[in-house]
Write a structure and sequence with these properties.
With 200 residues, the protein is α/β, with parallel strands linked by helices. Helices cover 32% and strands 30% of the residues. It is built from seven helices and eleven strands. Strands 3, 4, 5, 6, 7, 8 and 9 form a seven-stranded mixed sheet that branches. A four-stranded mixed sheet has the order 10-2-1-11. The radius of gyration is 16 Å and the shape is globular. The termini are far apart.
Length: 200
């Protein structure tokens, strides 16, 4: 783990157990990210680092999924003096992997047409909400240019975007393990499953 990844992890509360993430993957660690933006000064240096990493990619807008990604996108847009947008979750199925769907509100989507956009989230592990935001941006005729997160956990999400030719930047990285339901050792052990993302 890089030192900056450890510093970021120290700012959030984690729970150990057996969790179904929004992606449908299972994990033994869940991070409570809601308080992360309650005191922006605590994360200011990390936001600054991420803004500097995004700057070379010639972006004119930044978009993040609700909730934490949108908060981060707004901070970055202000720092970089570019357009801000957000994606909101429309639906999420409890069956299968990466079934979440997000949309860009119509009042914002027209402003993204033809713009080079950075897609950002507070933390990316498998990247479920970032993948869904990427798909939503395609419907707006935006041009995804780079993916960013304050903290990248593991490589599942980063690998997905890098395979699509999108660079992934962050203020920190840390190891993280997740499994498909069929491969999950916690399922095999009979550990009760906690669905940490409400199904809508």
């Amino acid at each position: 783990m890089r030192a900056d990844g450890a510093q970021l992890l120290a700012l959030v509360t984690g729970r150990r157990g057996h969790f179904r993430l929004e992606s449908g993957l299972h994990a033994a660690l869940w991070l409570d990210l809601d308080p992360l933006f309650a005191d922006v000064q605590r994360i200011e240096s990390f936001v600054h680092t991420l803004a500097d990493a995004l700057r070379p990619h010639d972006i004119s807008a930044v978009c993040g999924p609700m909730v934490g990604g949108a908060f981060l996108a707004q901070l970055l847009a202000e720092r970089l003096r570019i357009q801000f947008a957000y994606a909101e979750r429309v639906t999420r199925s409890s069956d299968g992997l990466f079934r979440a769907e997000y949309r860009i509100p119509p009042t914002l989507s027209a402003r993204l047409d033809g713009r080079r956009v950075a897609i950002v989230d507070d933390v990316m592990s498998a990247g479920s909400s970032l993948r869904a935001t990427y798909a939503a941006l395609a419907k707006c005729d935006a041009i995804p240019a780079v993916v960013g997160a304050l903290l990248v956990l593991g490589s599942t999400g980063a690998d997905y975007f890098e395979e699509k030719g999108l660079p992934v930047v962050s203020a920190g990285r840390a190891a993280f393990e997740s499994w498909t339901p069929a491969e999950c050792p916690l399922c095999r052990d009979g550990t009760p499953l906690d669905d940490v993302v409400a199904i809508t």
